[in-house]
Design brief:
Elements (H helix, E strand, L loop, with lengths): L6 H8 L10 H5 L5 H13 L3 H14 L4 H13 L3 H18 L2 H7 L11 H14 L3 H15 L7 H13 L19
């Protein structure tokens, strides 16, 4: 994910390595310090499975640019990959707060990162992801409450992602007993898709 502000620099750098390759960390380190640099280093570290490093970079990005939802989302995904369910749920909560606080303004920020709106997180997806984290963290009531909210939102959001709706339905069935009981059965551990 590249920000439009660094796109020209990235295109210049990308021309220097083979197609499909990623820039190295040392190449990225040569860029001026910025929240975009921290974000891109975090993405690189996360793609290599270095979650401690990616967490540091995403936190640095968020310290400089607290309203950057993609850094918060990547931080949540970093925690999810490590099965740190409470931390991931908290990060998804912060994503939801950013969406709520900024209304539609967060989409302007998202447009600066990727021109493809289908890659922008929707509230329904964020509630679903948090529900999955609560479920795996054994917080069945919170999982149930979030999945009920997610199910209502996912059916209205564009684009509708059938995998997200199916995941929400499976999780809703798994948590229905107390607004939180049930078993997960074949529920995928990931964030649905």
């Amino acid at each position: 994910i590249l920000t439009t502000q660094s796109l020209q620099e990235w295109q210049e750098v990308a021309s220097k390595f083979p197609r499909g390759g990623l820039p190295s960390e040392s190449m990225l380190q040569s860029f001026p310090d910025s929240w975009q640099k921290s974000f891109n280093l975090g993405v690189l570290a996360m793609s290599g499975g270095d979650y401690d490093k990616s967490e540091r970079y995403f936190r640095a990005c968020l310290q400089a640019e607290p309203s950057f939802i993609f850094a918060q989302l990547c931080l949540a995904e970093t925690f999810t990959a490590q099965k740190l369910w409470d931390e991931a749920a908290d990060a998804y909560s912060k994503c939801l707060e950013l969406v709520e606080e900024s209304g539609e303004k967060w989409k302007e920020h998202a447009a600066g990162v990727t021109l493809n709106p289908s890659r922008w997180p929707t509230p329904g997806q964020l509630y679903l992801n948090r529900a999955i984290c609560h479920y795996h963290g054994k917080k069945r009531k919170q999982a149930h409450d979030d999945v009920v909210t997610a199910a209502g939102l996912l059916e209205k959001e564009t684009p509708v992602v059938p995998g997200h709706v199916a995941t929400a339905t499976a999780l809703q069935e798994a948590t229905h007993a107390h607004g939180g009981g049930g078993t997960m059965g074949g529920m995928p551990m990931g964030m649905g898709g």
